[in-house]
Automatic annotation (TrEMBL):
Protein family according to the UniProt entry: Belongs to the azoreductase type 1 family.
Amino-acid positions noted as binding FMN in the UniProt annotation, renumbered to this chain: 10
HAMAP family in alphabetical order: Azoreductase_type1 (MF_01216)
Reactions mediated catalytically: N,N-dimethyl-1,4-phenylenediamine + anthranilate + 2 NAD(+) = 2-(4-dimethylaminophenyl)diazenylbenzoate + 2 NADH + 2 H(+); 2 a quinone + NADH + H(+) = 2 a 1,4-benzosemiquinone + NAD(+)
GN (gene name): azoR
Descriptive protein name: FMN dependent NADH:quinone oxidoreductase
Lineage, broadest ranks: Bacteria, Pseudomonadati, Pseudomonadota, Alphaproteobacteria, Rhodobacterales
EC number(s) reported in the record: 1.6.5.-, 1.7.1.17
UniProt-listed Gene3D superfamilies: 3.40.50.360
Length: 192
């Protein structure tokens, strides 16, 4: 049985295109076992204590270090427990929402989700796949102005998740009903 983690990052609760897309994706591939709503439950940005804690050898971490990393540990555990990640990626000002960037900062941990060796970085969260539900009002997904989609693909690959599918509703303000219609066709093509 595939365990699914759903991550919403839209600041909108009602009328969010990425939330609607993720609902449709879930109807196609299966209901999420765990949900994380970054638009509702704000995550704290990393700070000096977090950076110091993440760089300290585990045996040398203080109680403050462990407390600083507790949320990061929980977020990483959610990913480790999942086989499939469903991530809502609204494009805000050509990039990802701040809430999603904070999530990325908290899950990219040296020695935990990636490591470096002489060949370069190696992702440690292998054997998982992801579906990105990308929506934009005016930015064409995959264009030079789309810094969100390539960024998310890169981050996921960096931590070891290289099997990533993008479902896009792009330029919906200019394209009207054509954008969601194309996304529904992409979702229908997903393996159940």
């Amino acid at each position: 049985m595939t365990r699914i983690l759903r991550i919403d990052s839209s600041a909108q609760a009602e009328g969010s295109i990425t939330r609607t897309m993720l609902d449709r994706i879930e109807a196609r591939v299966g209901q999420a076992d765990l949900r994380r709503d970054l638009g509702e439950d704000a995550l704290p940005q990393i700070d000096r204590c977090w950076v110091a804690a993440s760089r300290a050898p585990e045996a040398e971490r203080t109680a403050d270090h462990r407390a600083a990393l507790a949320l990061s540990d929980a977020l990483i555990a959610e990913i480790e427990a999942a086989d499939l990640l469903l991530i809502g990626v609204p494009i805000y000002n050509f990039g990802v929402p701040g809430a999603l960037k904070i999530w990325v900062d908290l899950i990219c941990r040296p020695g935990v989700t990636f490591r470096y060796d002489v060949a370069g970085p190696e992702g440690l969260l292998r054997g998982k796949s992801a579906i990105l539900a990308v929506a934009s009002g005016g930015t064409e997904v995959g264009s030079e102005a789309d810094f969100a989609t390539a960024y998310m693909r890169h981050v996921l690959a960096f931590v070891g998740i290289t099997d990533t599918t993008v479902v896009a509703t792009d330029r919906h303000m200019a394209r009207g009903d054509d954008a969601p219609r194309e996304a529904r066709m992409q979702i229908a093509a997903l393996a159940a």
